[in-house]
């Protein structure tokens, strides 16, 4: 199986404005000292992805900032929810994919959302059909989870110390005032040189013979009490955070001592979102990575409340790395707040560029009012101006087939369908810009497809010297010759740059006699396009 598929296309467009800049003029770039027409890679990918060819062949995800707005509309069908609840749920669904605009349900940046993720969103929304309570969980162990995450870096050391104290028994046997005695012994191992709790815990483990006998007794002590003792800093921080978020009273006094992890548990079960445990993991990780790494800061406390509230949405309940949408697998996606769910693009698309210099021209036009009989005013009803240019474009596409299959969870058949659809769309579908004014529909006149494991390379350097600044008899023919000559030169210098290739050359068919078409053979001939598609994405493998 070849790793890379490279496509080189030459497509001629008549006067057009395929891809406009901020001034409404066709986009350009300077290359080889000359101004060239340009169509951006974003425009090309959007054109191909939304084409009928692509949509017919494969299923697609959606790119949008409006996922929160869409969720709110669906939630509005449930009268049991208040408007504020619908808004908060919708915002939390959108927050899974990134930051929101201020006072809005819209995302700041576009998100690429798969069909699987959209189905999960719909399922979450339906869970609120009978009210908030049906889509939540009840628990009094919020503090236990928070404590475990905050103390995760020393949990291994704590477990080792508990095993040492237990001495193989189910529970530890310590002195009646075990916490005072253990605190006194542990102070011997604490020093100002310790960079973290881990350091003194390690010293206690290494020197167990110096303190173990002095804390032994007849009082049974549960492991959770020892865990809270050795991870005292995390326990104190947990209790401080729980008090500050104020979502229920904590256990205290005798009740706290009699219940497992009672010191960091709530008296009553509280309403939390589904997936709240994972939300805590994410919150702690985000705080540690942020510039504001104070767990007790107002902003971080508010973020925690939002993360676990009964209308919060856990990222894991929506996001997935199992994609069946080939457009996401081809063009990738980035979720800055959830990098684990990023998808590396398997397809790279260069900006298409004209093989010759251009001068952008202006079209001055008028529109006549059909009901104006000219008796009072002979002038036009509208006067306008638009910019345009014509050009022969070189386009380059590189597909990492191995990565595409990987992105599609090993589905080679779907990967081939996607490659075929992309190739056909690239050859046949024109950008939509100003099509009603110019009807600038065009098919590629030439396509060179290459397969191999070698490092990919563009052939755009073939046009560093513009085509019409050479002695040419045939514009498209010379452009093809320049491309092939550049390819052959690379092969001679670097060795073979691809293992196999296929050419679709419309020019080669223009001068052929029609004898072959008149052949009485009943068997259907495979067209060059079909051969090209079978070359890049063979059916059945």
Question: Could you walk me through the main structural features you see in this protein, from its secondary elements to its overall organization?
Answer:
The structure is a single chain. The protein is an alpha+beta fold and 541 residues long. It has helices spanning 41-49, 52-57, 67-75, 83-95, 115-126, 142-150, 155-166, 178-187, 197-206, 212-215, 223-230, 232-245, 253-258, 276-289, 298-308, 326-331, 401-407, 412-428, 435-438, 475-494, 506-510, 528-536, and strands at residues 4-16, 28-31, 34-39, 62-64, 111-113, 136-139, 172-174, 219-221, 270-273, 347-349, 352-354, 361-367, 382-400, 444-452, 500-505. The strands form four sheets. Strands 1, 2, 3, 10, 11, 12, 13, 14 and 15 form a nine-stranded antiparallel sheet that branches. A two-stranded antiparallel ribbon has the order 4-5. The longest helix has 20 residues, at 475-494. The chain is elongated. The model has no long low-confidence stretch (mean pLDDT 91).
| Quaternary organization | single chain
Which whole number gives the mean pLDDT? 91
* Straight-line N-to-C gap: 9 Å
Helical residues, percent: 25-40%
> How many H/I helices?
22
Count of DSSP strands: 15
Uncertain spans, ≥5 residues at pLDDT below 50? none
Shape: elongated
Q: Structural class, from helix and strand content?
A: alpha+beta
